Amino acid sequence: MLGRVELPSDITETFVFLRDQLFEPLEKGSPQFEMLERFAVVICRKSSSLTSVNDARRELFTKQNRMLEYIPPTQEGISGFIHQKS
């Protein structure tokens, strides 16, 4: 059980945007992509202030000794997942 996770406040707006723009590409660096990155970081480590999944991976792997399955995806992984929808 993860317990209570404080999600980014704009995540609902991001999911609505993605639903409404289903077949439009989402560019890295866009506010929506950055929100999805932050969401992935928060899911893997509730107390993290990091916004980049690549930075979170590095921190969790090198400093936290986390098991690989609990480390967030890479930025490329998120991008690939998003582009599979079209």
What order do the SSEs take from the amino end to the carboxyl end, as H and E?
A: HHHH
Distance between the termini: 33 Å
Radius of gyration: 13 Å
Mean pLDDT: 77
Structure classification: mainly alpha
Helix content: 40-55%
Shape designation:
globular
Number of beta-strand segments: 0
Helix count equals: 4
Query: What is the domain total for the residues?
Result: 1
Assess the beta-strand content as a share of residues.
under 5%
Question: How do the strands and helices of this protein lay out in sequence?
Answer:
Blueprint: H1 11-20, H2 31-44, H3 53-62, H4 75-84
Report what the structure shows.
The structure is a single chain. With 86 residues, the protein is mainly alpha-helical. It has one domain. The chain has four helices and no strands. α1 crosses α2. The longest helix has 14 residues.
Structural descriptors:
mainly alpha; single chain; 0% strand; 86 residues
Concise account of the structure shown:
The chain has 86 residues and is mainly α. Helix content is 51%, strand content 0%. It has one domain.
